[in-house]
Design brief:
The complex is a heterodimer of chains A (320) and B (358). Chain A contains 11 helices and 14 strands. The chains are: A alpha/beta (320), B mainly alpha (358). Chain A: Keywords: ATP-binding, Nucleotide-binding, Transport.
Chain lengths: 320, 358
Amino acid sequence: MAEKSIEIIGLTKKYGEHVAVDNLTLSIEKGEIFGLLGPNGAGKSTTILMLLGLTEVDSGSVKVCGIDTTRFPLEVKRKVGYLPEDVGFYNDYSGLQNLLYIARLNNIPVEEAQKSALETLADVGLEEVKDNKVASYSRGMRQRLGLADVLIKKPEVIILDEPTLGLDPEGVKKFLQLIVDLSRKKGITVLFSSHHLHQVQQLCDRVGIFVKGKLLAEGKISSLAEQLFSKNTFTIEGEISSPPENRTPEALQEVIDKIKGIKEVAKVELKNEHFVVESKKDISPEVSRLLVNSGYGLAYLSKKKYGLDDIYHQYFQEEK
Amino acid sequence: MKNNVFQAVKLKLTAIKIPKLQLPDAPLPIFKNGSLGNDGRLTLSPFKAMVKKEVSDHIRNWRFIILFALITLACLGTLFSTLNDGMKALVTDSSDNNFFFLNLFTKSDGSLPPYFVFVGFLGPLFGISLGFDAISSEQNKGTLSRILAQPIPRDSILNAKFLAGIIVISVMLFSLSFLVLGAGLVAIGIPPTAEEFMRIMVYTVLSIVYVSFWLNLSILFSVRFRQPATSALLGIAVWLFFTLFYPMIANLIIKGYEPSKFASPRAIYFYEKLKFYLVQIMPNELFDEITSAILVPSVRSLGPLTMEQLHGAIPSSLPLGQSVLLVWPQFTGLLSLTLLCFLLSYMLFMKREIRSRG
């Protein structure tokens, strides 16, 4: 898997004083589904625009399918399908006509365009409404037509900018499933940006977290947690239930010290009977054994797993 | 000698440059061979598709239909008023010229202004209405980024808009000219002379250039301003400024220089020159001069003439070639204004960041 679909090195974009994208380096392999995750205004869209040569690059280089975007934007656009955020269509034309127009712009001969337009419309499930004017389409249908638009040129890479914005949960699910299926079937690289954690979590092979123009972390979601929370990946929360006579601070402190004695434990916090243990490995059996052996009861003990939510919040806290 | 050296250097430079310039093009045919055809004919077809779409959009547009109806009605109205009353208007002062057909375009019985006034007046409106939302509407609909994500050069969207506008304008103006010509043919019963026919064709072509100036100006505004209403109003404002306010301002300035009755001929000449040059900046004035020189063959000069220059001239009409020569500066000015607008829209558009709607 040495083949890189997208290679970004040291990409920077400034708007006046404001740095929208700051020295971004990122590479995406062929056939991968990559999620670009970040809050609004993080520079996701700007990065995508630079990938397509729709805005000037201040410094750094962008290569898509091995082609330099700044120098050969047309070649890149031939291979990349881009679905802009909040895509628009010619409302007076039917879905099919809109699609055919894009096919013509891609220099697909008329007969072939007709054929593949119908196929693509079937793929995205718009067969029945293909002759209706786009003005009558619902948001979900427009989005699917946008996907058809992207697919008709048979791209090697698809770039979707906030594709699920404004869709209802069911629509989101279907739409994303459609993308995944198509990508897997045809081996298309997919890059998509979103600020919805859960969608990204569901379908991406890898994600990159993007805040204020910087890529803070990238990788598989499981490994992301490790990157972000440096060493102490495992966190155990629990509450000690103990007879009142044992509940002196000194006694509790003693227990805590014992827990600290376990190998791999990095940090223990105690607040009344509630404690939080951070460690490099899963040590919940040791902790519970230790507590019980010391004559304490355990009200509850829970392992905390990091999802993207936590990753996200962690970052926002840092930013603040 | 110096020139020769310069040219030699220039030649060398181009000789070096040519292979360099072709380098970026080199990968192109490879990709084309791979997937989509292999000849140059096909590369033009996306552009053709765009122009086709723009033209059909214009023609189906209510805005166009209304304006076209308006201009056609005005044109028919003048035609009837000209041909009314046994064509008195046509023949009244034609003692010195026999250009009946040209009179169809320039004379009327007074109840309605003649054809050329309508074209001069409604043409700008037509140009503005075709172009004022060319780019901004695509942007507001969110289609611009979708189109530009396709493998087409960025300028082809501007070129397609412009070319489609010109095609529509040409078709309209030519059909109106032929309409007037045909109606005149039926009514008068004499076919136009070759000279008259050529004059009318030249006039039509030049009026296309005039309308395309306004088209370009409004495309420029549509590139610059996000709101179509802003660019439409600005287009109309420029038009009003040139038809109403600029002449007033020019008048004020000229008044200040008005020489007395006993001023030297030099002062009078300067005054006349000033009067002439001050209005040369107005596109509508340029077009008026073009119209009068082309459609009225007896017009010999557009600026002031001294008595010496007139001395010995035979009062007769000019041949077409001379008339065209007469308006060549005006035509060049109009064309350069058009190109200037086009250039500015290019500069604004090519480096611009294309966001989906914002």
